[in-house]
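Homework-ish question, so no full write-ups if that breaks the rules, but can someone show me the predicted structure for this set?
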Amino acid sequence: MNELSSRILCRLTAADDFLSGEDLSVELGVTRSAVWKHVDLLRKEGYQIEAVTGRGYRLTGLTGRPVEAEVAPFLTGGRFGRKLSYHEATLSTNILAKALAAEGAPEGSVVVADCQSGGRGRMGRTWVSPPGVNLYFSLILRPKLPSFRVPQLTLLVAAAIHRALSALVPEIEVKIKWPNDLLLNGRKVCGVLCEMQSEPDLAHFVVVGIGLNVNQQDVPPELQGRATSLFLESNRLFSRPELLATVLNHLEPLYDAWLGEEDLSFILPYLEEHSLLHQKEVAIDQLNRTVRGRVSGIGRSGELKLEQEDGQTCLISSGEAHLRTALS
Amino acid sequence: MNELSSRILCRLTAADDFLSGEDLSVELGVTRSAVWKHVDLLRKEGYQIEAVTGRGYRLTGLTGRPVEAEVAPFLTGGRFGRKLSYHEATLSTNILAKALAAEGAPEGSVVVADCQSGGRGRMGRTWVSPPGVNLYFSLILRPKLPSFRVPQLTLLVAAAIHRALSALVPEIEVKIKWPNDLLLNGRKVCGVLCEMQSEPDLAHFVVVGIGLNVNQQDVPPELQGRATSLFLESNRLFSRPELLATVLNHLEPLYDAWLGEEDLSFILPYLEEHSLLHQKEVAIDQLNRTVRGRVSGIGRSGELKLEQEDGQTCLISSGEAHLRTALS
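A: Not a homework solution, just the prediction itself:
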């Protein structure tokens, strides 16, 4: 959607009644025929816009796509999502957001795509990203903090998404799988990938990438039993613009609180209460070794507290966790 | 310098005797007149190249600029500096190197500039970068490590530079000022700025930026008493290509050793021995506070160990250190 179409749509979604073509043209600094032309473009994209001589334009139907104009009415915070760029298709929203951040995009800017051709999870793994059904978005943050604090963000974001999903599907227990996944009934519904550019003393920017399976009705064969969507677990369809805004609305105050704290202490009880791995036997695959033990909690910087067989407790900063069965 | 000129110059610097125009043209896949044209361009850049009918070309004089062909003969390692791009002027070699790294430049690639219009130190501070006299370069690294280990690199690089400088100016004691500066007679001669792009589990790339004052003969008024150059302290001029290679030659094996270690333990005695702050009273300015105490050592991850007035020892991960006088 072009800039002018987006601005017209934003004004129409915010209005309670008809907006005159004259007022729109003055406000946006374009001709009335330009307004008309872009209203026509919006209709071609699926928006239902009534035009009545002498009264002007009125929006009567949205498309349900997570574009700025459809997300904005649901936002409650002051910064997150207030600047939102939407793309029908992209390689990866994190790649786009990193480029925008390097060019100086402000904190709170969001990049959304309807589908990703190269969606990625942690460690270069693929994130399956079909069009029309899910949410793939990246949020740009600029915490004025030394870089060692940034990895704490992954769990903070997971907590915010947990709150958002718990509010939307209260009938299903949502679990956080340390450090970056959310599960419904034991299956992955959402993943978080935080990337940063930093020097040791200062994070330059952070890109928080979120992939959330919303209305997807089929799980690819290779992910059967491991992945799911909100629809598949609740048998309900969700508004992607509202869901995107709900996640941002929960994250913004949590992020602001975290900036004023030393670490994650203030949210640890919540994280431990909803942790899939709490008090479980796990194996953690790290880059060059596997660590085993029983999870006894989460550390202040977001580490997994692991009680090993020798009785020692160690703090695990990174890795891929697996629940252990009798065989593992 | 264009690609073909650079390749011809590399061949000439590596040769012991005359190289025939015919051999050069076959080897480089270009015409003999193209070889001649680029030899002429090299002469215009200041290289002295003898041409003798029937024998070919022989290099008899270099320019002393830190270009690939002049650096390569001094390199002893297999990767660092083997791919080197030289720029007469750039905003900042770190900015260029980050762009190259994002495009996939291999580990060990080096970007050098003769001068920088926007040279930067830590925390966005300026690094004064006049032309023709100093070294400003950035090294691209791709350690397959979780991001929390990367800040250790700053001190590792400082140790490598310390070794290089101590070899070149053995008459002067070189000191490391935690975490990223090197000093001669109490004045800053070199600074290191490491920047990374990462996800928590994995560093994607690191750019190690190094600014080293080599043959600079004047210190700007605002840096009087605080900055210096190798020339100003030793009254000798240094070959920038040799110096650049010497730093890379010391860093490459140290880096390879560090990849196989858990932390900086293996190099801590060296770092503590040459630390300016060791056993000194210091004040550390952090983003939102100042911490004071006596430095008792360096932690395994490169933190400063600080004994505070209450007798507690704390580990300081980031900040700007100042030696305390009676007044501070």
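Now go work out the reasoning yourself. Hint: Residues 3-61 of chain A form a domain with the Arc Repressor Mutant, subunit A fold (CATH 1.10.10.10).
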